[in-house]
Specification:
Layout lengths: L4 E6 L6 H17 L2 E5 L9 H4 L4 E3 L4 H4 L7 E4 L11 H4 L2 E6 L11 H4 L4 E3 L8 H12 L10 E3 L2 E3 L5 E3 L3 E3 L12 H16 L1
Parallel strand pairs: 1-2, 1-5, 2-3, 4-5, 4-6
Antiparallel strand pairs: 7-10, 8-9
Helix pairs in contact: 1-6
Bound molecules: S-adenosylmethionine.
């Protein structure tokens, strides 16, 4: 089924390198599946990275989701870690638009999705474990476009990324798993995480 729209309401002032990789991935996957991806609520000075602007499924939007969908609010589903019920394939009939918080994951979660919950959109949960934003969009797509129930999606929780014999880091999130058991992550993300980890070590020295 095509024609769904995925909106990430960008809640941070700037666009950090992690978010940039996540958004490029969401745009590419939207392009591949014939759906649309909006990044909304962008500050006027926000500079859209060229790699993102080049993907036809992607739209950068200054307006917020409330304004964009003022007259169709009931067709918008907020993916909310505190939603009362879990997303199901039948929700494809209930909603046209799926809304996500444009925030990096944090551990423990600070519930910044509450900023969108306060706007009154109907919420659905994607199970009890925090996902990265691109994973949350991927899982939503598998449920509403692929009709796969949440419980049948293969996940890996809190994977350990091993950089070499001595260095590794545990990611405190749930990811979709590939056939060879690896977490699906945006292209370039493992390298970025390693670079940040090295920077952290350098700062301590
Ligand atoms: C990285 S998460 C941020 C969660 C976060 N710590 C917070 O402050 O709410 C980014 C977005 O992905 C979606 N998301 C992540 N895990 C989810 C889950 N288990 N159920 C529903 N939505 C989820 C939500 O839309 C959330 O705003």
């Amino acid at each position: 089924m095509a024609g769904k729209t995925y909106i990430v309401e960008h809640l941070d002032e700037e666009l950090g390198p992690w978010s940039e990789l996540e958004y490029i991935t969401i745009a590419r996957e939207s392009q591949e599946t014939g759906s649309k991806f909006f990044l909304s609520s962008l500050h006027p000075q926000f500079k859209v990275p060229d790699a993102l602007a080049a993907i036809p499924s992607f739209t950068a939007e200054r307006r917020g989701v409330e304004e964009l969908y003022a007259d169709k609010k009931s067709r918008v589903c907020l993916l909310d870690p505190q939603g009362k019920s879990d997303l199901a394939p039948e929700d494809a009939d209930n909603f046209d638009v799926f809304l996500f918080g444009g925030i990096l994951g944090d551990d423990p979660p600070r519930d910044r999705t509450s900023e969108l919950r306060a706007k009154g959109f109907e919420g659905r949960r994607l199970g009890p474990v925090q996902m990265t934003t691109d994973t949350a969009v991927r899982v939503t797509r598998l449920v509403v476009e692929g009709k796969t129930p949440l419980k049948d999606i293969p996940y890996v929780d809190f994977p350990e990324l091993k950089f070499n014999e001595y260095e590794s880091t545990e990611m405190p999130f749930r990811y979709v798993k590939t056939e060879d058991g690896k977490p699906i992550m945006p292209e370039g993300m493992v390298e970025l995480i390693k670079k940040d980890a090295d920077k952290g070590i350098d700062d301590m020295l």
